[in-house]
């Protein structure tokens, strides 16, 4: 390999390139943040939805399910469970767990109150109305 | 560091530091993929792209091409002068190159201001997404290039470069020519070709 | 071992291996739950097992990184560690906090745990990989700061090599980006957006600096290639990693409510992400081929080369498979994601930690290399774990392709659970591959206890 | 630094000032050509081919002379020119595909 290859130059290019691409990421992040309200359904982000998100988190739902495709892959996608099943089915389903069917995957009983169930459903409704660029491909998630 | 010490003047030599050439290859790859993706996406939305392309200011695009080419020429002159052993005399050439690059930035800012004023953003349409993404990605390269030219200017002014020490100035020059090179495709692709 | 304070690395490495064993035990349990759904229910539901599995992975890798730093920073900077006592204290704090957290997961209801640990003051729990209680998260920050203080002070008083600088940059980045785990807005899209600033900017950003620095350190030691050469290439490789990986974050912003342009930015830049991994593989093989000495520790060389190849396959190739937005539209959140996750973590981070352990452990135990017999056992464990991981990945990929086909591509899409039943054969095969992996891990642990004539340490 | 007096052997990779100026003039002329095509609003396969050929020609001058890869080890100009050729022809292909649609 003819020509020069110095550690100092390689270092400068590393720092320059890193700063450059990090700034680019920040620039895109700024644009995303300013335009996020167009897609994030924040108009419907009520205190009840936030309370529902808290239920979602403190029951570690993400440990089995996916939400908008992120989470574990053990149980169904719930980003669109609201249009798939509707509010009453969701509440009844959560209340009737676990099924106890031998050999089948089991969901724990969380003993949620009616209020908590409503909050959780509100959160799932809000989530289903986020503009996720037409994902998932169909209602089965 | 056996730099240019051989007696044979005809030996092939990569100008500048090898490290910048890896960086340049990565950049060319990124730009190349971006260009090709643009072209194939356009093939599916020809009417949209043709219509919105007309809203771009071709003349400022052409002016910017001239500015970048001229700036590149000045950098070549700076390298030639430094190579001849006159580091300090390279400084004005680099200053001129910087001025042209800064001119590019100014023209581009006017162009962006006009588009943003018209309410156009990355999310307006596929065409504007590409127009803004590609030109902004390139725009940031111009800014980085200007920082590098300023550093080279400082080096030249303090007499750092000469036939025995061309690595810094050649490395910066190679990067700047790359910024020019991708614009040579970007301009006809996004502003002109229909 | 050239500096006595390097010996603080020893407990870190032992803890790492111990937690690794725990991680695999829970991995096997989950593998079984995939096919025998009510296994261990309701004592250890899947979500608890998974949380333990992934959190143990993160914690033992962090133990590995810290141990690696305590081992290589004194040697690189040519000075004793600033405070070995602080390092040992942090070891115990981190181990006890980590163990308490895992026990909390296992024996306390997650909601109760959240209430007990201040989640109502600042809600940070219940997000994938960041399930740790607030107290644990704060503990991690404190341990990380004390660790970074210790390492940075060591470096300030010693020689500043490229390897130590890159290692330190990576570790500082790790600590800084972890701070985003404290940001959990009610807006789910924002939550997810910045969640990736921890997860992606860790594993496809700053962790790659740590990994490259660790690999470069071992390569210098086992090949004897000139430091200048290795350090220049180190810079080039990490430049490529960050140039592609930073904007590559966009491949997580396709379907979570973020603007559509991320599909383009994310696809284009993450499509280039295999390049640094490929460069790392070429680099590792190149350096070994140009070696100037025959290091007695053959096993360490094998782990190092394995890191290059498996990181390229797992992170590079399997990442590329589903990184383009039109493909990811169908594969997002399927078993293909799981396949990629397994091989990428194993190839890049598990192997690099095992590489440094393989190199440093004999030295910490007062010998240049283990006995021939011990090394043979260790190399067997490499092949058992690596090959079984390849099969785990292949079976999950097959499961994923079938899942995507039945549930998402087909004109008559099937419900999730029905599809899971259809692909259970692949889950069974994955489980058996996992059993082989566990056998490999037992072999690995056993290799530390194999007797035989070890190579004596010759102090230069 | 002193040694530089006694070593005028530095292989000049960067041509002469005149050559650089002539190339600059050619590049500007080519840019004007592209701009004129745009102002006239010409379109079609021939125009696409013309514009991509102009871009390729300009790129070649930059790569070989300004970047000074003409005197670099053969691999480098080949990679750069290969990139240019590949990108220009892929773009041409995509435009041709756009015509058919």
From TrEMBL, chain A:
Keywords: Electron transport, Heme, Iron, Membrane, Metal-binding, Transmembrane, Transmembrane helix, Transport. InterPro entries: Cyt_c-like_dom, Cyt_c-like_dom_sf, Cytochrome_c550/c551-like. It holds the Pfam family Cytochrom_C. Residues 47-128 form the Cytochrome c domain. The chain crosses the membrane at residues 12-30. This is C-type cytochrome.
UniProtKB/TrEMBL annotation, chain C:
InterPro entries: Cyt_c_oxase-like_su1_dom, Cyt_c_oxase-like_su1_sf, Cyt_C_Oxase_1, Cyt_c_Oxase_su1_BS. It is found in: Membrane. Pfam families: COX1. It is a multi-pass membrane protein. Residues 1-460 form the Cytochrome oxidase subunit I profile domain. Gene3D superfamilies: Cytochrome c oxidase-like, subunit I domain. Keywords: Electron transport, Heme, Iron, Membrane, Metal-binding, Respiratory chain, Transmembrane, Transmembrane helix, Transport. The keyword Nucleotide-binding does not apply. The keyword Metal-binding applies. The chain crosses the membrane at residues 12-36, 56-74, 86-108, 134-151, 163-183, 195-220, 232-256, 262-288, 300-321, 341-361, 382-406, 426-450. PANTHER family: CYTOCHROME C OXIDASE SUBUNIT 1, NITRIC OXIDE REDUCTASE SUBUNIT B. Belongs to the heme-copper respiratory oxidase family. This is Nitric-oxide reductase large subunit. It comes from Aromatoleum anaerobium.
TrEMBL record, chain D:
Pfam families: COX4_pro. The chain crosses the membrane at residues 21-38, 44-64, 76-96. It is found in: Cell membrane. Its main location: membrane. The keyword ATP-binding does not apply. Keywords: Cell membrane, Membrane, Transmembrane, Transmembrane helix. It is a multi-pass membrane protein. This is Cytochrome c oxidase subunit IV. The lineage of its organism: Bacteria, Pseudomonadati, Pseudomonadota, Betaproteobacteria, Rhodocyclales.
